[in-house]
Amino acid sequence: DTEVTQTPKHLVMGMTNKKSLKCEQHMGHRAMYWYKQKAKKPPELMFVYSYEKLSINESVPSRFSPECPNSSLLNLHLHALQPEDSALYLCASSQGLRGPDMNTEAFFGQGTRLTVV
Amino acid sequence: GEDVEQSLFLSVREGDSSVINCTYTDSSSTYLYWYKQEPGAGLQLLTYIFSNMDMKQDQRLTVLLNKKDKHLSLRIADTQTGDSAIYFCAESMFSGGYNKLIFGAGTRLAVHP
Predict the structure, then answer these.
(1) pLDDT for A38-96, tens place per residue?
(2) From the CA of A14, how many Å to the nearest CA of chain B?
(3) CA A51, CA A40: separation in Å to the nearest integer?
(4) Distance from the B57 Cα atom to the nearest Cα atom in chain A, whole angstroms
(5) Most buried one in A9, A110, B7, B33, CB count within 10 A?
């Protein structure tokens, strides 16, 4: 099983709404990631969790709040977003991060298509 | 700096071979990856190569790595219409004690009859 499951697949929210994106994997991976992908652009790293601790925050605005309740789950809480935050949000997982020779083979979910109106 | 470059578009005839090229900048990258993205979908890992290898073959896919020139290529043999997608190369960068992936801009492959 190399599946990373993201819900919902599509989300439309207003600028005053609070919503959450969810991601789940059962591969025993201890690193989980959130990426943002705008149309016709490559994915851009937002956050990395390693062993349920936030390891990387790529200077993401505080209106995006990640949470890792356990090693299988990753959430992204959204509040007071702007229309320019509309994008495909991708979750990924891999075995782990530590060590320069460690393969960071990452498996991606299908993404949540977010539209902020 | 961190930079991965790819040509943006490639058009091939069905049955021909496709070659997608990529250059990267970080000579310390230990793994390099190829991902495929179909419209509206997530990224599918196609293959990867460790930096001490020159070539890796996996069914219709052949990856060539020229570490001296920091050049990576993906060859798809007998290209089919189902191969039409965007292909991203990515390098693994060890930074701040953690590995992270840096993606190229993606190459859109169009396969025509």
Answers:
(1) 998 999 999 999 889 998 899 999 999 999 999 999 999 999 999 999 999 999 998 87
(2) 22
(3) 32
(4) 17
(5) B33
